[in-house]
Every structure is written in C-alpha cells, then in structure tokens.
Amino acid sequence: MATIDLNSDMGEGFGRWELGDDEAMLGVVTSANIACGFHAGDPEGLGRTVEAAHRRGVVIGAHPAYRDLAGFGRRYVDATPAELRADVIYQVGALQGLARSVGATVHYVKAHGALYNTIAHDELHASAVLAAVKDVDPSLVVLGLAGSPLLDKAREAGLAVCAEAFADRAYTSGGELVSRREPGAVLHDPDVVAERMVRLVESGTIEAIDGSAVRVRADSICVHSDSPGAVAMARQVRSALARAGVGLRAFAGPAG
C-alpha cells in the first residue's frame, strides 16, 4: 500500500489574533510544522498547539523563519550565516522546551516562508540552517522542497531528509514554487488540489502553471493552514488519497 505524509503549518496566531483552525487541522494531518515565534506564534499559544498535537498523536516539527514578525516571515532577510545559525538554534530550542513540558518531542525541522525558499537554492543560508539543525540535534529530519539542492546538501551533512510537495501551490516548469507575487500562485479549488495530489502519488508528476508535467518525488504533502478553506481542502486531499488506496503515515517520529 502506498503511503504519504500530510503536513500543515500551525501555531501561527499571535496573542489575540488567531490564524487557521489548528484543532480541526490536527484531525486531518499526520505532521504539524509548528511556528517558533519569529514569523508568528506567542509562547502560550505555541504551547497549546504543541500540547494539542501531542494529544492527537500528530508528529511535531519546528518551523523556524527569518526574524520577520511583521511580514509573516515571507520577506528575505540578509542575515549573516552566524546570525541565521543562532536564530535557528534559538527557535528550534524554544519549541523543544515547550514540547518537553508536555512530554512531547520535536522530530523534524521545516523552514518557513522566505527562509524555506531561500535555502532551497542559496548555499550560504542553507549551510547556516543545516549547521544549526545538526548542532541542536543531528537526529532531526530536514523537511524541504522536493528536488532542491538543499536535500542533497543535508544528506552530505549527515542529516536525514524528507522531500515535500505543496498541495495548494502552483509549480514552475522547473519544479520550483511560483512566487506568491504572481497570479495563480496559490490554488483554492479543493477538487483540483486533491486530484493533483493523487496524480503526484501515483505518477510522480504534477502539472506546472504552464500546463507541462513536472517530475516531483515527494514523501510529504503540505496544505497551508492560513489559506481560506484550508481544513476543507486538507480533508478533500485526505479523502481523495484514501479513495485511491493511499494511506497516510508520518515520515518522522514514532509513526515514521
């Protein structure tokens, strides 16, 4: 039976402002990428998200970002490698502390937003992030963009990796994500998204924004929780995969 992981970004509210329905999404996904405070998330709220994920048996990952709270981590920050390494260590360590407080464990690291896109190809910032992960805990799995040089670099550093595809994002013909600044970058039709993910699992391809077929080999699928109708979309993806005979299984942690 074919299996794949289904993940989503969580803990992205701040104080009185809530973003996404984490409780509902935790009933759908197998892995939770939990914010670490630099792009979203306050300590109390993050603690609640960690506890909820642990209670539901969802595998926990740290979701560090550039220091960009106002921009939701979607703006590039020209940090030095030393600054970025320290920032990532700080963020992952904070989430580890919150996890330990409820008897949970952080099993993987997935960068957020601009940091995710930058380290997919930028050697300088990728090296800093990977050094931070290895220094904090070399058993942590690196979740990154399928087909990106980051995954090879992580393997060379002795880190385990998981390749990720995005359910609700458009792809270029080169296998990269279409910039959010471009029209059509974010997909909103649950039926279309679900069909794309079944095709991904069954054939290892996904339709690019220009209509061409792109080879994407992935072991995890992400549905962004901050998009309108995100929970319904995640449920549709999960249902479509089940109908196609694809099981859900976390790529890391006790169930991985």
UniProtKB/TrEMBL annotation:
It catalyses: 5-oxo-L-proline + ATP + 2 H2O = L-glutamate + ADP + phosphate + H(+). Its EC number is 3.5.2.9. It comes from the Bacteria. InterPro entries: Glyco_hydro/deAcase_b/a-brl, LamB/YcsF/PxpA-like. CDD domains: LamB_YcsF_like. Keywords: ATP-binding, Hydrolase, Nucleotide-binding. SUPFAM superfamilies: Glycoside hydrolase/deacetylase (SSF88713). The keyword Nucleotide-binding applies. Signal peptide: none annotated. It is an enzyme of class 3 (hydrolase). Forms a complex composed of PxpA, PxpB and PxpC. Belongs to the LamB/PxpA family. Catalyzes the cleavage of 5-oxoproline to form L-glutamate coupled to the hydrolysis of ATP to ADP and inorganic phosphate. This is 5-oxoprolinase subunit A. The gene is pxpA.
